[in-house]
Each structure stands twice: as structure tokens, then as C-alpha cells.
């Protein structure tokens, strides 16, 4: 007998994946519901896009329902399924659950670590983010620029100067230093630590700079009351970047301060 397309899980998976990849999350979940009704048994490839759709919609109820089905079918030990779950719970801020899925994974890759580190960091759990980052450094997996940019706010917010400088060394050694995201994070971190010389060194060594780079330095200088440097950075680079509203406000403030200083 011929295999009817409706009974073919591969076909369902392709549709669900296409919908989810294109951000049509409600449609993806609708099709997953139809798959369940059609008595087709999902396989492990069905779930990452379904979990991604739950994450995209911040739909905790459906997410938990799908997680139960994953457990029933025994797919929770699949790397890609587990990564999707860690990412979903991390985005939702349900970090205990994310951590639990992470801890139970038989195999982890960089994506697993990045999702959880970024989850901790973006929800303000800086200690946990740094702790996990240290665990990662002790494993055989090499962090990338996403890991570094995820962990930077944690370094910055905990004001761990020593750690922060260790990170710069790491960034140089692992070659992610050319990545503008990492450099912007390092700039922000040094300026926050009141280390403008270090920030300037990072800035001068950057091969690629974007608007965030200039905006970070201009606002950072202003916060350190380095008004002249702030205005100079602005006026010398106007053709190279788009100032954001924060920068324009900063520059007006810096000019005001300089005028007052000159008048005084």
C-alpha cells in the first residue's frame, strides 16, 4: 500500500519547521496540534521547531504541555530537543527549569551553554552566569563571541575588575576579539570600571567599529566627566556613525559643561 502523505511525519516536520523558522509561531503550533490529532507519532525532529514556537510566543502553558510529550516519548536526551528546551525556559526566565534540563543532558554543545548563560545574564542572575561561564571554561568546549557578549553584562555589573581583565586576555587568545560585539562590551565594561585608558586601547585596536562603539565611548566619557574627549570623539567621527538620542543628549550636556567651565 502507498504511504499516505498525512501519515508521513517527515512531511509534517518540514511544514512545522518552515513555519517556525519564519516566525509564524501560532501556525506552527496549530500544525503540531493537527499532527497530534492525525495520530502520526512525532519523532525527535518534530520538537525543536515546536519548542521554538512556544519560546517565541512566551507560551509557558503550551511549552510545559509539549515538554511532557517529549518526556513521554523519551526525546529529552536528544541534544537538539534539549537545547530548544533550555533556550525556551531561559527566554521565559524560568531558569530553574532551564538549569534542570541542562543538568540532565547526557551531551551538551556550545549552544546549550550559551542559552543558559545568556538566560542568567539577561534576567540579572549575574553570579550564576559567571559561575556557569567558569564551568564552561573548565570543559573541553571553547566559548565564542556570543558566550562572551552574554557574560559581559555580568562582569560589568559585578564590577569584578580582575575577572574583566581576564576576559580581555581570553578574547585575544580565542580570536573572538575582532568581533565588534565583544569589543563594544569590553569598551562598556572598562568605562564602567572608570578605566578610560583601557577603553581607549580597545577602541584604537578595533578593526571594525559600529555606531554602538562610538555611542558607548561618547556616553562613557561623559559619565566620567571627560567632556572634551567626549565632544572630540563626537565631532571627529560624525561621518562614521549615526548618533543615537542618548549620545545627542550626552553631547549637549558635555558642551554645556565645557561652556560653563570656560565661562568659569
TrEMBL record:
Pfam family, one: PPR
Domain of life of the organism encoding this protein: Eukaryota
Keyword hit for Acetylation: no
Annotated PPR repeat ranges: 8-42, 78-108, 109-143
Keywords from the named record: Repeat
Any one Gene Ontology molecular-function term assigned to this protein's record: RNA binding
GO BP, sorted A to Z: RNA modification
Keyword Repeat: yes
NCBIfam families with a match to the protein in the record: PPR
Protein family according to the UniProt entry: Belongs to the PPR family. PCMP-H subfamily.
Protein name, UniProt field: Pentatricopeptide repeat-containing protein
Organism in which the protein naturally occurs: Noccaea caerulescens
Amino acid at each position: 500500500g502507498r504511504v499516505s502523505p498525512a501519515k508521513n511525519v517527515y512531511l509534517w516536520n518540514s511544514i512545522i519547521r518552515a513555519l517556525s523558522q519564519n516566525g509564524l509561531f501560532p501556525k506552527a503550533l496549530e500544525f503540531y496540534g493537527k499532527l497530534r490529532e492525525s495520530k502520526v507519532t512525532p519523532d525527535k525532529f518534530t520538537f525543536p521547531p515546536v519548542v521554538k514556537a512556544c519560546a517565541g510566543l512566551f507560551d509557558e502553558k503550551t511549552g510545559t504541555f509539549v515538554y511532557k510529550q517529549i518526556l513521554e516519548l523519551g526525546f529529552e536526551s536528544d541534544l537538539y530537543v534539549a537545547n530548544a528546551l533550555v533556550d525556551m525556559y531561559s527566554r521565559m526566565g524560568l531558569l530553574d527549569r532551564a538549569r534542570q534540563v541542562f543538568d540532565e543532558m547526557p551531551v551538551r554543545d556550545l549552544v546549550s551553554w550559551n542559552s543558559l548563560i545568556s538566560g542568567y545574564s539577561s534576567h540579572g542572575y549575574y553570579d550564576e552566569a559567571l559561575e556557569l561561564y567558569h564551568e564552561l571554561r573548565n570543559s573541553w568546549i571553547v566559548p565564542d563571541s556570543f558566550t562572551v557578549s552574554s557574560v559581559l553584562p555580568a562582569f560589568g555589573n559585578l564590577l569584578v575588575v580582575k575577572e574583566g581583565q581576564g576576559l580581555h586576555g581570553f578574547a585575544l587568545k580565542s580570536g573572538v576579539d575582532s568581533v565588534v560585539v565583544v569589543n563594544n562590551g569590553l569598551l562598556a565594561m572598562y568605562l564602567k570600571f572608570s578605566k578610560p585608558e583601557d577603553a581607549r586601547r580597545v577602541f584604537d585596536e578595533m578593526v571594525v567599529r559600529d555606531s554602538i562603539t562610538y555611542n558607548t565611548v561618547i556616553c562613557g566619557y561623559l559619565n566620567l566627566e571627560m567632556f572634551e574627549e567626549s565632544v572630540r570623539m563626537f565631532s571627529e567621527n560624525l561621518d562614521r556613525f549615526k548618533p543615537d538620542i542618548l549620545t545627542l543628549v550626552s553631547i549637549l550636556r558635555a558642551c554645556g559643561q565645557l561652556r560653563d567651565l570656560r565661562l568659569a
